[in-house]
């Protein structure tokens, strides 16, 4: 409304000023025309002809001599007109321009005829007509302003409603999110900034809802994983206290208690590792390591375990390279992946392969196990997620291993990829940035 009001005031002032300027120029041009005629022919007939012409128009003419005496006039001379006309020495002057407070606007055109006469042609025009015209103009402007303001108000009300309705919806949605209800749905479908904001709030709500469900499942799974071994420990501890047990029975029960206590200890250690990673309080100490020799050490350590399980473990050092890593943390990663391959492979071959891809060292561990369904691969790095929900008692896994693997690889600035096919096996690839150490003599195996 401020812009509209300012624009209308400027336009009105410009139109009025243009109208007055045109009237002044027209009056001046008419006076100059009479002056030119008198300079060519200064006769009584010419004077009377000029006066007769002006008496038929809405303008008036007063012709004076050099001393200011009136020679001819189309209007009766009064005090007001006498105050306007006076001897003029300059050419082409507007001698009265105030149309608002004066009765006339006036111009003066001095002349000097060929026959030696000189004087001034005064042109006058009543301001009443201009005032009436401007009054009508003001009236039309007023109507235009009212119409424009009406449509402006209607348009603004519509725009405000269109803008505030989605904003109110988003406000209510954020209020529900703040109260813990993440199942909000925003119907805003526009592609402008409001639509982008609505999509961001919708995405936020979806992510928070997913985190809430994950937290509930995480706590439920932790409770279950802790309750089960503790129940075994307590139960077999009670049984082990009975006096009628034989030594072999008591030893068997103690063995079960020992295994379950190890399970609880392992779970707590994994949780402690994840807690440190979440708080960014776990540290990695990097150094430049030759990955071929590093993997050879892990291979030698894991080979007997795989052999005893009837699984053939192979190491292929196709291309040697250096990487800046924390050897203890990366060994934890490799052993964790190998442990999963051992648990879910019934025979077959598990391979560890070292190669290069672009400027990266590529470490690939492949097994011939059960495989993972495609729809579950995106979730296997979630904490406590298990592809087979009932397998923990058979394999001892609680679904934290791959979460730790992902965190450690990310901390190294690496990339972790998994490809799997049901009944064929799973392949885990780790890409680490290669570092240049200079030429080294490698021993392949």
From TrEMBL:
Pfam families associated with the record: HAMP, HATPase_c, HisKA
Principal location: membrane
Location(s) in or outside the cell: Cell membrane
GO molecular function, one term: kinase activity
Catalytic reaction(s) noted: ATP + protein L-histidine = ADP + protein N-phospho-L-histidine
Keywords attached to this entry: ATP-binding, Cell membrane, Kinase, Membrane, Nucleotide-binding, Phosphoprotein, Transferase, Transmembrane, Transmembrane helix, Two-component regulatory system
Residue span, HAMP domain: 161-213
E.C. designation(s): 2.7.13.3
Record-linked PROSITE patterns: HAMP, HIS_KIN
Histidine kinase domain boundaries: 221-436
Residue stretches spanning the membrane: 141-163
Keyword Transmembrane helix: yes
Membrane topology classification: Multi-pass membrane protein
Keyword Phosphoprotein: yes
PANTHER family hit by this protein: SENSOR HISTIDINE KINASE CPXA (PTHR45528)
Name assigned to this protein: histidine kinase
Lineage: Bacteria, Bacillati, Bacillota, Bacilli, Bacillales
